[in-house]
Amino acid sequence: MAEFRIRKSVPETVRKGEVFEIKTLVTHPMDNGFMFGRDGKRIPRHIIHRFEAIYNGKTVFGADWHVAVSTNPYISFHALAEESGTIEFRWHDDNGTVHVDSVYIQVI
Amino acid sequence: MSSTHFIGAFLAVEMLAAVVLTAHAQERQLTSGAFPLSGYHYMGTQIQELQDDEFLNPGRFAVDHGLELWLESDGSEGLSCHSCHGDASVSMSGVAARYPQFDENRRSLVNLEGRINEMRTEFMKAEPLELESEEMLALAAYLTFQSLGEVMDVDVSGEAARYLEEGREYYMQRRGQLDLACSQCHDERAGMMLRGDRISQGHVNGFPVYRLIWRSMGSRHRMFRWCNWAVRAEPRELGSDEYLSLELYLAWRGRGLNIESPAVRP
User: Fold this and answer.
1) What homologous superfamily is domain A6-107 in, according to CATH?
2) Which end of chain B, N or C, is less packed with Cβ atoms under 10 Å?
């Protein structure tokens, strides 16, 4: 399978107390388990089944994904700016891997 | 009395005619082969937005991957593309818009993928990349991205003229169980529906493209194979002489269109 690639975006700086947008897009087949390959065999289910965002150690966003989520899943959500620090993203893959990445957010 | 009726009826007819005519004009805009129109104009606004959005366009992953490959040394010479060419946004700007081209040394047509493999084998002493592999598509997308917005402009003078003619012949030739030429869909039926697809003019300015039905990037030659399958004709090999000539013809036919890669297509 292709490499897991991540694109992420947060504002460069955000004011304390402000609500800001976080966006991520990753490459993943999100095979739903209902499709058949060229060889006539069923392609097993292979999806990201959970996504989480952890802001300075606190889970601020979590989502369980199911088989209807498209290839290369995109998510956009909002968080409240408290302190400068890191936001860690975790994508839980059906294959057992947890893909992890993070961004730094500067609160002014 | 009756004359006002008459004027009323006349106005109504004229208005109707105006409506029909504008509908026709719009239709003609999408159908006429008189000027080239990118496949972009034939798809829904949602997919157009996906293409235009730097963050969401899935083809941009290939471009990012291509940059990594550009910087990576490979082969026994220990060289990367960057070792010789430096910053691609300078050295490769406008280059992809001029491919395919006739190569004096090889005495044949070469497209961008062919050039990439020539660099790898001759200069880097590395293995050629497999056509349609993720790496080849990424590097081709990265190079083509350096020409984003540039006008497609291939040289068809001199030796290239012969290949242009071969490509035109292939394009006009009926083939397959459905006995259809490329031109019968992409010139004569542009703007019409083929099952769920709206047929475009069949230009190559968006390639390498991200096609949603493929869920991946694809080259111009992969598209030709797909269209050959569509009429149940025997597809040619990726990188074959026939496809190279066809590619030259299509690039020339769409001259003046802006490079859109990585385009997104349904």
Assistant:
1) Immunoglobulins (2.60.40.10)
2) N
Q: Quote the CA–CA distance of B116 and B66 in Å, as a whole number.
A: 12
pLDDT in tens, B208-235: 999 999 999 999 999 999 999 999 999 9
Distance CA B264, CA B59 (A): 7
Euclidean distance between the first and the last CA atom of chain B, given in angstroms as a whole number: 57
The whole-number pLDDT of residue B196 equals 86
Domain ranges of chain A: 6-107
The confidence score (pLDDT) of residue B30 equals: 54
**How far out from the chain centre does Cα A24 lie?**
6
Distance of CA A14 to the CA centre of its chain: 21
> Are residues B110 and B167 both part of a single domain?
no
**d(Cα B250, Cα B99) in Å, to the nearest integer?**
11
E strand or H helix at B46? helix B45-52
**Average pLDDT, whole number, for chain A?**
95
* CATH number, domain with residue B130: 1.10.760.10
In this structure, the answer to whether residues B141 and B158 fall within a common structural domain is: no
CB contact under 8 A, B64 and A5: yes
What is the tally of structural domains in chain B? 2
How many CB pairs below 8 A link A and B? 21
Active site residue B182: no
Cα–Cα nearest to B156, from B24, B261, B68, B251? B251
Burial class, B25, CB count within 10 angstroms (exposed 0-12 / middle 13-18 / buried 19+)? exposed
Chain B nearest-CA residue for A28? B215
Reported confidence tier of residue B83, pLDDT bands at 50, 70, 90:
very high
Q: What pLDDT, in 10s, does the model give residues B131-180? A: 999 999 999 999 999 999 999 999 999 999 999 999 999 999 999 999 99
**Residues spanned by the domain of B74:** 59-145
At B7 the pLDDT is 40
